[in-house]
Amino acid sequence: MSLCAVKGFQRLRQRQCVLISKVCVHQLHSSPGFTDSCYDGLYPGHIQTTPIQKALLAVGSGVAALQNPYRHDMVAVLGETTGHLALINLRDRMKNDPEGYTILTERPRIRLSTLDLSRMASLPDGSFGREYLRFLEDNHVTPDSRADVKFVDNEELAYVMQRYREVHDLLHTLLGMPTNMLGEVAVKWFEAAQTGLPMCALGAVLGPLRLNSSRLQSLFTSLGPWALQNGRRSRCILSIFYERRWEQNLEDLRQELNIEPPPVILSAANKRST
Amino acid sequence: MAASMRLLVRRVLRLSHRNINVAAAGGSGRSGCCSGSSSCRCFSDATGDRSTHFGFETVPETEKAKRVYKVFENVAQKYDVMNDAMSLGIHRVWKDMLLHAMHPQPGVRLLDVAGGTGDIAFRFLEYVQSQQERQKRRAARSTQTPSWQDISTNYSTEDKDGPQESKAVVCDINKEMLKVGKQKADSMGVSAGLSWVVGDAEELPFDDDQFDIYTIAFGIRNVTHIDQALQEALRVLKPGGRFMCLEFSKVTNPVLARLYDTYSFQMIPVLGEVIAGDWKSYQYLVESIRKFPDQEEFKGMIEDAGFYCVHYHNLTGGVVALHSGFKL
Q1: In B222-256, which positions are buried (b, 16+ CB within 10 angstroms) versus exposed (e)?
Q2: What are the backbone dihedrals phi and psi of residue B161, each rounded to the nearest 5 degrees, phi first?
Q3: What spans are recorded as compositionally biased (Polar residues) (chain B) (predicted)?
Q4: Given CB atoms, is B266 within the 8 Å cutoff of chain A?
Q5: What is the pTM (predicted TM-score) of this model?
Q6: ipTM of the complex
Q7: Facing B44 at nearest CB: one of A13, A28, A74
Q8: Measured in Å, how far apart are chain A's first and last C-alpha atoms?
Q9: Side-chain-side CA neighbours of residue B158 (13 Å)
Q10: Using CB atoms, which residue from A18, A52, A57 is nearest to B273?
Q11: Which of A143, B48, B59, B310 shows the smallest number of beta carbons within 10 Å?
């Protein structure tokens, strides 16, 4: 395996030329030809953008996400382009927490390849790992569907963003919310109160527009206030090393995080029926 | 005789010149800040590949075709929507102007290379059909009182004079683009006189002297060896055949150039991300435009390939250039 060095870093000029910084890792295999994993920017998947481009992206992705809420990539882009200050705030909170600091240094990723599903299935009911697995199965979701971060211009903040995305499903489990519209809105309210990301706030405000009146009532009377309150008072959810707590009892974990159990039990059978 | 000798000598000189310049990955550097120093030497010494440009990147020549394929595979579904969004619909005007300059008459055979989603071919068939109807009307007017015999012969020849006479062949290296084109044709109900062929512009799957008109619209800058594509164009055209190329080119007016650059680099990748979910492909697109030779240089390349009466016409201030040449 031979490495080829870093080359050329160009600064953005008035003519808005393309900004390229390349890191090339060159691998020579025994087979003919070669593979190289080159990436531009500060981390794999990073795309350098000018402030104008970020502004255009924010507006464009907002419009696209509103028109078609199933475009998760647009929601992701909106979060990345508008979340700079909130990400800094989150990162500082993580740094001040010992467990959060460990996460920032070790950089764990939640993926199917890193999870030991058979071991989690063998855990007792009521444990965090078992309930998480149940959540994945009931709602037919997988942790691998999270888009990679592209437009955050700081490597550490990009990881914080990625961690936030990957923790989202775990949050569903902690809060006991399914992935139907009402459950998603409740989780968004919690996240908006917790993280302060503008994308969460936008989702929290616009999400209820798609709910029917009975669900709206449930949201405004019980679920909503519960989510907001708990979002404000709970420990920073990004600072928990979930991967080491699969055996922990879910109720214990909730207490540790200062989260009350949900006032209303929603079932996953209500999927996709707004 | 002297003319062809001159052409031969010029071509030999050009080839040797190009060999020297091959690793520099230069085109006529539009904005010098962007081209030169970002070259990462990504190629292996063992294979000894020549390198070329892929946008502002430098890649081995063998890599470029693969990467271009991938780009168009990714964008195929949203290609037409993106064209409308990026050019604000003006690409339709450019393509219409190509057809107008072409002025095809019923009976000609068109080869549209890199024709992908079929825009040129559809316009060609429509144009030829309207020309046919025009001719029929003219014929009808000239024969003031046709006899029943004349009318009946006209009816019987109508089907034969149909679009089967004019044939359009859409050739593209990318199957996804052709698929989208075919779907469009099906939804428009156009099928007669249209064929879809997978093929490489540098090595066309057709015999010599087959076509009356060869077009390549916004495709030739993606070809790795442009001179080979031009030679292939010369080969498959009949004597008297016409080569026509629509391609993005250099804007002459400096104010417009500035605006165009800003728009290209700021807006287009953003549009690509928002509409098609693909930033990188559209970044490649705007970079590849900058790497393509300018109007005069491209005209020289067409002449080197052996075409005569080579002219170009700037559209939209030079944003697009329409080059035309004849095989004699």
Answers
A1: bbbbbbebbebbbbbbbeebbbbbbbbbbbeeeee
A2: -80, 10
A3: 141-156
A4: yes
A5: 0.75
A6: 0.75
A7: A28
A8: 54
A9: 11
A10: A57
A11: B48
Strand bridging mode B194-198 / B167-172: parallel
Is B278's Cβ below 8 Å from some Cβ in A? no
Instruction: Tell me which chain B residue has its CA closest to the CA of residue A2.
Output: B44
Instruction: Scan for tokens 């990318």, then name that residue.
Output: B174
Contact A34, A28 (CB under 8 A): yes
Between residues 19 and 58 of chain A, which touch chain B (CB distance below 8 Å)? 20, 22, 24, 26, 28, 32-34, 36, 38, 47, 50, 52-53, 56-57
Residue A181, helix vs strand vs coil:
helix
The pLDDT assigned to B89 comes to 94
* Cα–Cα distance, B304 to B263 (Å, whole number): 34
Instruction: State the Cα–Cα distance between residues A149 and A107, nearest whole angstrom.
Output: 14
Counted across chains A and B, CB pairs separated by less than 8 A come out at 80
* C-alpha–C-alpha distance, residues A17 and B262, integer Å: 9
**What is the enclosing helix (H) or strand (E) of A26?**
strand A21-27
List of E strands, chain B: 51-54, 57-60, 109-113, 167-172, 194-198, 211-217, 237-248, 308-315, 320-326
Q: Is residue B201 part of an annotated ligand binding site?
A: yes
Would an 8 Å CB–CB cutoff place B261 in contact with chain A?
Answer: yes
Q: Of A95, A129, A154, whose CA–CA distance to A244 is shortest?
A: A129
Best mutation site among B31, B270, B289 for testing chain A: the one with the most A CBs within 10 Å? B270
| Closest approach of B318 to chain A, Cα-based (Å) | 19
CA–CA gap between residue A242 and residue A253 (Å, rounded): 10
Q: At B139, is the pLDDT very low, low, confident or very high (cuts 50, 70, 90)?
A: confident
Q: How far apart are CA A240 and CA A197, in angstroms?
A: 19
pLDDT recorded at residue B255? 95
